[in-house]
Design goal:
It is a single chain. About 40% of the residues lie in helices and about 20% in strands. It is α/β, with parallel strands linked by helices. A 7-stranded mixed β-sheet has the order 5-4-3-6-9-11-10, with helices on both faces. A two-stranded antiparallel ribbon has the order 1-2. Helix 1 packs across helix 2, helix 1 runs parallel beside helix 3 and helix 10 runs parallel beside helix 11. The protein is globular.
Length: about 280
């Protein structure tokens, strides 16, 4: 008989082959919670689960992120389909949602564009929590297919999905833009790929296998954010953007050079949020 406590230990020891001890322990608990809604205890694990675990371990040891293996991830209490064609939801993105809800009344039917929507987590979360009219935009048609699946999963049928870069495909000017764009310096990719998983955080180990188009950007990671800031300024649309590289000052100066009134909020992981509201 194998208990849930023994299974957690087996997963932890197996993951230690590629991770440091803290990450392997953290992720082993996550496996039990995500996949089987369990925590370590003395209850018996069904035999069919044990065979699944061996397959999961083999895939994880090959570097595949846990959310891609299990096929879903969580964001703000909602379950979302996770697929290798879109980046994995990060909980710190919820600060964008919170800031947007502070800026506009959730009961008023304003128009909001989620630019670089990926798997659609922000667009769908906003649709579930507000009466806003949401448009989800992404340059990747493959990522939008995951968004569509997540819309179907949550029975959200009023989000407009559009393929294209930034605001270009929009036919109506929105009242607000939210965006979690690729903002890791593209030179970091080589360093991550060359690193041992034992030297990486769990999130960085995920980043190595996420689609590059959704993660990296040129110009110190700020290329796409700058493009959106410029276009949003021309359209006179306030923007809430998460920026996760270390080039905050460069981006701040660029935004101000356009004429934006710019403010920063820093989340629990010290990642700054860029909030921009046009002067005057």
């Amino acid at each position: 008989m194998t208990t849930w406590a023994q299974l957690q230990r087996k997963i932890e020891v197996s993951l230690y082959l590629i991770m440091n001890i803290l990450n392997s322990r953290t992720e082993s608990y996550q496996w039990l919670s995500d996949a089987w809604n369990q925590e370590p205890n003395d209850s018996e694990v069904p035999s069919e689960i044990l065979s699944d675990v061996d397959q999961y371990i083999a895939r994880r040891l090959n570097g595949e992120p846990w959310p891609y293996i299990i096929g879903f991830s969580w964001f703000m209490g909602y379950k979302f389909i996770a697929h290798q064609d879109a980046t994995i939801p990060r909980e710190n993105t919820q600060r964008i949602i919170n800031q947007a809800l502070q800026m506009f009344d959730p009961d008023k039917p304003i128009r909001v564009a989620d630019v670089g929507t990926g798997s659609g987590i922000m667009a769908i979360t906003l649709a579930l929590q507000t009466k806003w009219k949401i448009t989800a935009v992404d340059s990747s048609a493959q990522a939008l297919k995951i968004t569509e699946k997540n819309c179907n999963f949550h029975k959200v049928d009023d989000i407009e999905l559009m393929v294209g870069n930034m605001l270009t495909p929009l036919v109506r000017i929105p009242d607000l833009v939210v965006a979690n764009l690729p903002s890791i310096d593209e030179t970091i990719k080589t360093k991550l790929d060359a690193s041992s998983l034992k030297d990486l955080s769990i999130e960085d180990s995920y980043t190595r296998r996420e689609p590059s188009i959704g993660v990296y950007a040129p110009e110190n990671g700020n290329f796409w954010i700058k493009a959106l800031l410029k276009q949003s300024y021309e359209w006179n649309i306030p923007v809430v953007i998460q920026q996760i590289n270390n080039n905050k000052l460069e981006l701040l100066e660029y935004a101000q050079s356009l004429g934006w009134h710019t403010g920063w909020i820093t989340n629990e992981l010290n990642n700054p949020l860029l909030i921009t509201i046009r002067k005057g």
